[in-house]
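W.,

You were right to be curious about this one. When I first looked at the sequence I had no strong expectations either way, so I just let the prediction run and decided to look at it fresh. Below is the sequence, 245 residues in total, followed by the output.
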Amino acid sequence: MTKVVLVLEALSSGYRISEISRKTELPTSTVHRILQELAGLGWVRVDAEHRYLPGVRLMSLAGQAATGSGITQIVRPVLQRLCSSTGHTVHFALRSGEEAVYVDKLQGDRAYAMRSRVGLSIPLHSTAIGKAILAGLPEDEVRDILTRTPLKAMTSHTITDPDRLIAHLTLIADRGYAVDDKENEEHTRCIGAAILDHNAVPVGGISVSALAFDVDRTKVRTYAPLVVAAAREASQALGLPVTCR
């Protein structure tokens, strides 16, 4: 069972058998056998490039866990406090391979409404939550992701050069939060921080989002510590040891 869990944990970004074998330190033959069994049960799937990814049954189970009495209910009080203290829309997203997916959203008290919705997939390279997630991953894993995922220019402000993005992620890691400065949508500014699991690995993130005119750079500096604190509180609620920094 331990071997199966190791293989499942290695599926998050979509890897070939040899890569999963290297990451799990299991023999290639063992990884191949486990993947074949899981594929037959619908827990994993293989794409056209022979990369293994979470299958329909696994994604369905994850979706059920992230709603109802699962993760969203644990994190919801944190989101409510952040929304109340800033007055802006807040999001909670979980990483899903080379994207993130909104699993909860609380609308702010502004006259306008953000167009986002629960269930929407968002890029990692152009969003505050996505960049916060990438900043917490090892550089070799980030480069693997960037190699497989085109850095699409969502707006004229999107960072599309891999080396420039890597340097930007270093800054994010140092300060603990990311800013989407009109990089994913032309008139939107967001502040995001990563949510970590019990091993301090980024599995998602929390963000505050607003139209750019409503959150200038001074407000970014004001809201950033609130977002970072909320992400840490959510991480600890989900199992991150209090001693982790």
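Here's what jumped out at me. Residues 66-237 form a domain with the Beta-Lactamase fold (CATH 3.30.450.40). And, maybe more interesting for your project: The chain has nine helices and eight strands.

Coffee later to discuss?

I.
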